[in-house]
Q: What sequence folds into this?
C-alpha cells in the first residue's frame, strides 16, 4: 500500500481565518494530489477580483469621453488629468497592496481590496448625478479609482506562491490577462450603458450614473466569494525587513524600469486611446474601437509568458520593444495621412506587443531571483523559499513602478496637445523610451559578457 504524503487541510486555522500551513508546489506528489486543485480555485477568484479592480481603475477612461456631452465643460487637458490620476494613485497603491499579502494573507486581503472598490464606485455616481459638481470633486473621485490598480500587485504576488516554478510564466500571464480584460470590458460596456435610461433617469444626454452602478453588484458578489472560497498561505508570510532586501538589488530596478515600457504602455494607452480617437478623429465614430486595444493586449499576455517559458524572457522582451517602436512609427505615419484605419491598426500592434512583453517580463522575475538566492545560499529548500519571497516582493514593486506609465502616457499626450496642438511630440518621446528599453534589456540580460560573468543568471533570464 502506497504511503500518502501528509497534507495540511486547506481549512487549517492560524489565529483566525483560513490558512494553509503546508504548501510545496515543487513537490510533484503534493501538486498532483492536492496542490493543483487548491491553486486553481484561488486563481479563479483572484482573476475575478483583479478583473473588477481593473474595470474600476479604468472606469474614468471610458466616462471622461462623455462628460462634455453630459454638460460638464472641461478642457481636453482636464479630461486627460481625469484618466491619468487613477493610474498615478494605482501605481502608489501597489506597494502597500503587495506587502499586505505577506502581512494579512492572500485571501484576507483579496476580500478587503475587493470591498474597497465600492468607494470609487460610489463617488463617481455622486459626481455625475449632479450637473453642478465642480472639477475638483471629479479629480478627487478619480483619485480613489486608483484603489483598483492596487489589486493587480497583491493578486500577482499572492498567486506566485501557489504555483510551481515550471508553470509560473503561463499562470501569471493568465492571472494578469484576466485582470487586464477588465479594461476592455469597461470600454466596451460603458458607451453602451450610458445611452440607456435606467433607475428613473430621463433626458436624451448620456446617463453616466449607469457606468459605476454597472459594477456595484459584481463587486459585492466577488467580495463575498473571495472570503468564502480563497485561502491564505503561511509560506507567503514574510517580515517586511526580508522583503525590503530586494530594494538593494539592481535587478529589482532594472526589471521595474522594463515594466514601465511594457505594462506602463498597456495601461497608459488603454486610458488615453478613447480621448485620442475623439480628439484626432472626431468624425470616425470609433470610440468603441478603443476597447479593441486592451482586449488584444490582455489576450496576448499569456502568450508572452508561454513564449518566455519556451524561448527565454529577455529575448522575448527585447523583441517586443522593437515591435512597439515599430507601432509608434505606424501611428506617426497614420497621423501624417490622417487615416483612422492605419491609426487604429498601429495602436493594436502596440497593445499586442505590450501584452506579450508584460508576460515575458513577469516570467523573468521569479527566474532571476531564484537563481540569485541559490547563488547566495546554495541549492537548498531555503534558497528556493527565499527566491520565491523575494520574487513576490519584486513583482509587487515592479508592478507599482510600471504602472507609472499609466500616468505618464496620458499626461504626455495631454501636455503635447496643450503645447503643440498635436500628439506627435509625445509619440517621439515614447519611441525614444522603447529604444532605451531595448538597450537596457540587451545590456543586462542578452550581451555575451553576461554569459561569461554570470552564466547561471543568463540561463535563467534568457
A:
Amino acid at each position: 500500500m502506497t504511503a500518502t504524503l501528509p497534507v495540511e487541510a486547506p481549512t487549517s486555522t492560524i489565529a483566525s481565518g483560513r490558512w494553509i500551513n503546508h504548501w510545496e508546489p515543487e513537490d510533484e506528489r503534493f501538486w498532483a494530489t492536492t496542490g493543483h486543485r487548491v491553486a486553481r480555485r484561488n486563481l479563479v477568484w483572484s482573476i475575478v477580483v483583479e478583473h473588477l479592480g481593473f474595470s474600476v481603475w479604468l472606469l474614468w477612461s471610458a466616462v471622461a469621453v462623455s462628460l462634455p456631452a453630459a454638460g460638464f465643460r472641461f478642457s481636453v487637458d482636464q479630461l486627460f488629468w481625469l484618466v491619468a490620476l487613477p493610474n498615478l494613485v494605482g501605481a502608489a497603491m501597489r506597494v502597500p497592496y503587495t506587502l499586505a499579502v505577506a502581512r494579512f494573507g492572500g485571501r484576507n486581503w483579496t476580500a478587503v481590496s475587493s470591498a474597497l472598490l465600492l468607494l470609487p464606485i460610489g463617488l463617481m455616481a455622486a459626481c455625475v448625478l449632479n450637473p453642478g459638481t465642480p472639477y475638483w470633486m471629479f479629480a478627487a473621485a478619480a483619485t480613489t479609482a486608483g484603489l483598483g490598480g492596487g489589486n493587480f500587485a497583491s493578486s500577482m504576488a499572492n498567486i506566485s506562491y501557489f504555483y510551481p516554478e515550471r508553470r509560473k510564466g503561463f499562470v501569471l500571464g493568465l492571472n494578469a490577462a484576466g485582470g487586464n480584460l477588465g479594461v476592455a470590458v469597461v470600454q466596451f460596456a460603458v458607451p453602451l450603458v450610458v445611452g440607456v435610461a435606467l433607475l428613473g433617469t430621463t433626458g436624451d444626454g448620456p446617463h453616466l450614473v449607469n457606468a459605476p452602478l454597472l459594477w456595484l453588484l459584481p463587486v459585492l458578489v466577488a467580495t463575498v466569494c473571495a472570503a468564502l472560497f480563497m485561502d491564505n498561505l503561511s509560506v507567503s508570510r514574510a517580515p517586511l525587513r526580508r522583503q525590503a532586501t530586494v530594494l538593494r538589488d539592481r535587478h529589482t530596478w532594472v526589471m521595474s524600469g522594463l515594466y514601465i515600457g511594457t505594462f506602463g504602455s498597456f495601461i497608459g494607452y488603454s486610458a488615453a486611446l478613447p480621448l485620442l480617437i475623439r480628439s484626432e478623429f472626431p468624425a470616425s465614430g470609433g470610440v468603441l474601437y478603443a476597447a479593441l486595444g486592451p482586449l488584444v493586449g490582455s489576450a496576448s499576455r499569456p502568450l508572452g509568458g508561454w513564449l518566455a517559458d519556451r524561448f527565454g524572457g529577455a529575448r522575448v522582451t527585447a523583441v517586443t520593444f522593437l515591435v512597439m517602436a515599430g507601432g509608434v512609427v505606424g501611428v506617426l505615419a497614420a497621423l501624417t495621412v490622417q487615416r483612422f484605419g492605419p491609426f487604429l491598426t498601429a495602436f493594436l500592434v502596440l497593445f499586442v506587443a505590450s501584452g506579450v512583453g508584460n508576460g515575458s517580463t513577469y516570467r523573468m522575475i521569479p527566474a532571476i531571483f531564484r537563481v540569485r538566492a541559490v547563488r547566495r545560499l546554495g541549492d537548498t529548500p531555503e534558497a528556493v523559499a527565499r527566491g520565491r519571497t523575494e520574487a513576490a516582493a519584486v513583482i509587487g514593486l515592479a508592478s507599482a513602478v510600471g504602472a507609472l506609465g499609466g500616468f505618464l502616457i496620458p499626461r504626455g499626450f495631454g501636455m503635447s496637445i496643450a503645447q503643440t496642438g498635436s500628439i506627435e511630440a509625445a509619440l517621439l518621446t515614447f519611441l525614444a523610451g522603447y529604444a532605451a528599453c531595448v538597450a537596457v534589456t540587451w545590456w543586462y540580460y542578452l550581451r555575451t559578457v553576461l554569459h561569461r560573468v554570470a552564466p547561471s543568471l543568463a540561463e535563467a533570464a534568457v
Residues 1-17 have pLDDT under 50 and may be disordered. Residues 340-377 form the longest helix (38 residues). The first strand starts at residue 19 and ends at 20. Strands lie at 19-20, 232-233.
